[in-house]
Amino acid sequence: MRTIDWVNGAVEIIDQTALPGEERVLRLHTVGELIAAIQSLAVRGAPALGVAGAFGVALAARIHVDDPAALAVAVQKVETARPTAVNLARGAQRAAALIPRGPEAVLAEACAVRDEEIAASAAMARLGADLVDELCGAPPRLLTHCNTGALAAVTVGTALGVVGELHQRGRLAGVIASETRPLLQGARLTSWELTRWGIEHRVAVDSAGPFLMARGEVDAVILGADRICANGDVINKIGTYSHALGARRAGIPFVVVAPESTVDHDTPSGAHVEIEDRGAAEVTAWGEAVNLAFDITPFDLVTAIVTDRRVIRVDRGEKP
């Protein structure tokens, strides 16, 4: 299953807003359609957004081949469709660098971004499973947050890819998936993917995670990231910080799994990252709301960061 792909001149995505009730594929022919899919979370997850950014520029390069000004505007709109995940802008910029060579070169670069993310997922699954085995010893009971499977990363996934690898090795004792706002991505998407993989699991309300750790029901927390700053601060789905605090109090590992494309050496710390607020409409119909999509987990609460190339032991002073 690929979350996002280029098929016969259009971008095809699995509509994540329809899951788990319906497995629906959307064909996106225009930049506007792609941006709408990104902003509605029909396609989401940092690695998948990087591919979406690249494919968005490929669409723009074909549509505006004879209009450089319109093409530049379209590229900028793709880059800024959502502000927090670094992969989106990076994927768009990487494809845009090939614009002088023509639309086919842009598309080839976008497909290369896709293929690299697919390879990265497989590598992260292996490295992450090895690390969790080392940290936990016995098969662990893992808590994961948001959705970090194939839906977020084209295939396999980041943190959930590690969960799947541990399951295949017979080294997994259980999984708790937090429900995760916005749009209950854990309860809807992670649970759907775990069910497809035949992995038994429980869904927990977001606020229950730290208490479950305190009761000894979790051996490690494993989740993804939308941006990893130069100092090791982790930008991830809202609720991540609470789980990190709970893990520190319980004395259990807190492991972040994300591709190298998510490491942002140009951003010194989480204080320099714009945190998206999705507005009140997703939360309430009768008043104001704080509906942050992400939060910032300080590096000193992180045990390790696993990328497709390396394991960074933040607890030992290593930096991205």
CATH topology of the largest domain: Rossmann fold
Number of domains: 2
CATH class annotation of the largest domain: Alpha Beta
Helix amount: 40-55%
The count of DSSP E runs of length 2 or more, i.e. the number of strands, is 14
Which stretches are low in confidence, meaning pLDDT under 50 for 5 or more residues running? none
What is the rounded distance between the termini? 30 Å
Order of helices and strands: EEEHHHHHEHHEHEHEEEHEEEEE
Question: SS-based structural class?
Answer: alpha/beta
| CATH architecture level-2 label of the largest domain | 3-Layer(aba) Sandwich
InterPro entries: IF-2B-related, IF-M1Pi, IF_2B-like_C, Initiation_fac_2B_a/b/d, M1Pi_N, NagB/RpiA_transferase-like
Protein name: Translation initiation factor 2B subunit I family (IF-2BI)
Family: Belongs to the eIF-2B alpha/beta/delta subunits family.
Keywords: Initiation factor, Isomerase, Protein biosynthesis
